[in-house]
Amino acid sequence: MIHYQNPLPVVGCVPERDGKILLCKRAIEPRYGYWTVPAGFMELGESTTMGAARETLEEACAEVEIGHLFAVVDVIDAGQIHLFYTAKLLGDFSPGQESLEVAMFSEDEIPWDEIAFHSGHYALKKYFEDRGQNNGVHVHELRRARS
C-alpha cells in the first residue's frame, strides 16, 4: 500500500473596504498575539474561494465577496501551499474564537513587525503593490536556509 504525503492547502484573503484592510490578532498558537490576514486550512468539500470566505467568517465574524487570486506562497518546509485572494469586506466584523481582536488598517498603519507569518507579510506587500488591480499571480517560494 502506498501512503502519500502531500502538501496542505492554506487559503486566505485580504478583506478591503474604503482603502483599509482587515487584520486579525491571533488567539491561538503558533504566533499567538501576532496579526494576520484571515486564513487557514482548506476543508474537504469546499473550493479555495469558499475556504477563504469561511476562514474570514470564523476568524473575524465577517462576510466577504472574494475577488481574484493574487499570491501563492510555497511553504516547502512546512509542507503547505498558501493561496491569497483579494476580497471586499461586507458589513460588520468582530473577533472570532481564534482572534483576540480584529481591526482595519491603512497601509501605513499596518504593524509590519507584528505580522505572524512570512507568507502573510508577502501577500500584504503584493496586495499594496497591486493596489487592488488584477496584475496576475505573484509566486514566492519559502525554504529555510541550509547550512
Q: Summarize the helix and strand pattern as letters.
A: EEEEHEEEHE
Q: What do we call the CATH topology?
A: Nucleoside Triphosphate Pyrophosphohydrolase
Q: How many domains in all?
A: 1
Count of alpha and pi helical runs: 2
Distance between the termini: 35 Å
Task: Based on Cα principal axes, name the global outline.
Answer: globular
Number of strands: 8
* Low-pLDDT residue intervals, each spanning 5 or more residues: none
CATH-level-2 architecture: Alpha-Beta Complex
Described by strand count, sense and barrel closure, the largest sheet is:
8 strands, mixed
**Proportion of strand residues:** 35-45%
Helix content: 10-25%
> How much is the radius of gyration in Å?
15 Å
Structural class: alpha+beta
What's the rounded overall pLDDT mean?
A: 95
Superfamily (CATH H level) name: Nucleoside Triphosphate Pyrophosphohydrolase
CATH class categorisation:
Alpha Beta
Protein topology:
Blueprint: E1 8-17, E2 20-26, E3 35-36, E4 39-41, H1 48-60, E5 63-75, E6 80-90, E7 99-105, H2 118-130, E8 138-142
Parallel strand pairs: 1-6, 5-8
Antiparallel strand pairs: 1-2, 1-4, 2-3, 2-7, 5-6
Please tell me about this protein's structure:
- The chain has 147 residues and is α+β, with helices and mostly antiparallel strands.
- The chain has one domain (8-142): Nucleoside Triphosphate Pyrophosphohydrolase, CATH 3.90.79.10.
- The protein has two helices and eight strands; from the N terminus they run E-E-E-E-H-E-E-E-H-E.
- The chain has helices at 48-60, 118-130; strands at 8-17, 20-26, 35-36, 39-41, 63-75, 80-90, 99-105, 138-142.
- Strands 1, 2, 3, 4, 5, 6, 7 and 8 form an eight-stranded mixed beta sheet that branches.
- Strand 2 and strand 3 (35-36) form a beta hairpin.
- The relative contact order is 0.26.
- The mean pLDDT is 95.
